[in-house]
Amino acid sequence: MHRWLDRAGKWAEAHVAGQLAGVACSGQMGCDGLWTRLRRGVKSVVLSLVDTVSGVVWGIVVAAEEESQAGWCKLFEQAKRVGLVSEALNGLVSDGAQGLLSYLRATLEWVHHQRCVWHFWRNLAADLARAVAKGVEGLAASQTTAASQTTAASQTTAKHNASVVRKELTTLLHAVLDASSLEAAEQALTQLNAHRLGQVLAKKVNEQLDHLLYHRLACHAGLARVGPEWLWRDFRLRLSRGCNHASTQRLERAALLWMIYHNLTPAQRRSERKRHYKYPGQSPLEAAGSSPGEFTYLDALAI
Fold first, then answer.
1. Structure confidence by residue, pLDDT tens digits, 195-251
2. Any alpha helices (H) in the chain, and if so which ranges?
3. CA atoms of 171 and 175, how far apart (whole Å)
4. Domain total of the chain
5. Mind listing the pLDDT tens digit for each residue in 127-173?
């Protein structure tokens, strides 16, 4: 099976040039990486570039890391060979890898970078925890504790206070990050900053405010507010995490084969409990306006 997969991957690798020439691009893109461990403990990351409107994957490569420009440069160069016109790019959502940000500043300076809101929440976790702990200490100091109060009762009170403080801060944060417009976000940010425990959080949010709300601008219709991690669900179903391919070359060939499969295969029509398909029954190429008809990924691979 792996030998067959690698032979098909070599065919896919040889036919990268012009593979998606003429396919419409919305200009609203997403980038993400999936880490994998290969033979002899070698770690690599699979980088992808996907249209967040249609779901068409424009490029997929294997790199050593995310924090240097080299891997991202390789990804965008491959996308150009596939048929992507760089000038058509308008917005791009990602988790904030420094290598990608450096590449955008150096090469695609006109592209607005949308910071993944989910990853931003994760980055705020430590500051939120410190603010909650500080708030609990303040409430405990202001409360009169009876001498006969048991340890269990004290712990229950502390948990309740922590829950109250966390709810106050997260409500204010949601008002900023989930705002329907930049003006509404700025008003909510003022309220967060006015909270007795919200100054540090407000500062962190303010530093990234524009990048967190680019998806609300009319010129970025269709730009997602979270990174395209949904893409890896199907990748894992077909290739696991890629660890069985042993080398970066074989993993990249398998990833190119998967890109062809993904772009030409229709999504299922029914929704699942936790997953809904944007274009049920349609392939990403169909969603982009380039219907392949009865042409399948096996036909594309000349199998």
1. 999 999 999 999 999 999 999 999 999 999 999 999 999 899 888 877 778 889 999
2. 2-14, 69-82, 98-107, 117-142, 151-177, 182-194, 199-207, 209-213, 231-239, 248-264, 284-287, 297-300
3. 6
4. 2
5. 999 999 888 876 665 555 544 456 656 667 778 788 889 999 999 99
| Residue with the two structure tokens 């048991």 | 150
Q: How far is CA 201 from CA 162, 163, 180, 235, in A?
A: 17, 17, 20, 36
Residue 147 contacts by C-beta under 8 Å, 6 or more apart in sequence? none
Same domain flag for 55 and 179: no
The residue from 157, 187, 216 where one domain ends is 216
Assigned token pair, 26 = 């919305």
Whether 28 is in a domain gets the answer: yes
129 & 231 share domain: no
Final residue belonging to a domain, choices 190, 216, 242: 216
Q: Is the pTM of this model over 0.85?
A: yes
Find, among 2, 79, 9, the residue nearest to 258 by Cα: 9
